[in-house]
Amino acid sequence: MFPDHCVMAVRGRSCKNMFTFIVLTLILFISLSEVDSKKTAAKCSVCKDIVENFQKGLLSTQKSNYGGGNTKWEEKSLGSYATSEVRLVEIMENLCNDGSKECHSVLEEYEELVERYWFKEFAQKKETDLYNYLCIEHMQVCCPNFTFGKDCSQCPGGNVRPCSGNGNCDGAGTRGGSGKCRCNSGYMGDLCNQCKDGYFEDYSNETHTLCKVCHISCKNTCSEEGPKGCDGCKDGWLENEELGCQDINECLEDPCNENQYCTNTQGSFTCFSCDGACVSCTGSGPDKCNECSPGFSMNETKFCFDNNECEADETLCKGENEVCKNTPGSYECRCKSGFTRTDNVCIRVAKETRSSKQPELPPNLAEHLKKTGSKRKDVSWDKFKDIPSVNGHFLVMALYGISCRFAASSNLAIFALSLLMVIHVVWFATNSR
Is pTM, for the whole model, over 0.70? Predict the structure, then answer.
């Protein structure tokens, strides 16, 4: 790959190694340039947001203090507040209303510039545009419209119709980008003034080019609108001298399977499955059948209807506890309600037996039974659930809690309620034995 004389050492390295080093350095330089360009474009976007929020701040402080109006009205009605530091502070508080770190970082770095603009330009009634002052001239992160790059170079095609009005200049309005035209759909070329394949030139002069899409039947290129303008036809289309490219109806050749029907589309066709009532068909539904499927019959209107085998043949499903159930194109033998099929015989479903397991007792009753020596197997919760004292106990507890809530401000009322509660608990323990 390298000539023999390139094997000589350069500071201990071969020419091959030096060449690799140079290539990697160039790649790194290009990558860093792209990263720097993206950072610059991001700062430009942040600066535009700051300017926009500054203008909103002027309006909001104007309205919130006195009502709003033109410059002369502002001078007359707002007085010293119009250019005061108080108003500036109120505006600057909302310059980063989205709360982004990038905005706060940029504003912190260039806060003095905003203040200088306020006192040296705005307060002095100079008609200085904040965007030009801050983003273009001083921060130098943006460019005027239709310019790009570090030196704000002009976009291809000039600042009146860059990219012939058919695309966007890469990096326009920022200190980044390549300046190359990114053409809209259908356009190509350095100035986006040429038509791509699949489009034709409908109008053109020194400054304007209008491209329109070719007809769907055109293979690649065309000279005018419609199927007659095609230079060649796509597959599925047939060229006609008078009409141009015409769609071929592939369905005339029956390309689909027997249980499918064909639908023609532009330049192609689609096969769909027939209705379940049809063996073959000409379209969708049981009224488009050429022949009915087994279990269906065709009436005088060429409609395939389902045969009800259960009504037609009374000998079907005569097994013990069986019934016949009609289905589309067939039938099924099913067991009667309350029966299940086992070894091809319908057997009655056994009724569910009540569980012999005793339900769990509430913790307080279980503890009471342990203390009194009662055996678990002789006691059931069913015996206790209907006792008025049990239900009344829980009701009294609930009422006690509610009463304490409303009587929280009266110590005497709480004492009386507590005494009644003690009496109730003693009564309940006595009557629950």
Answer: no
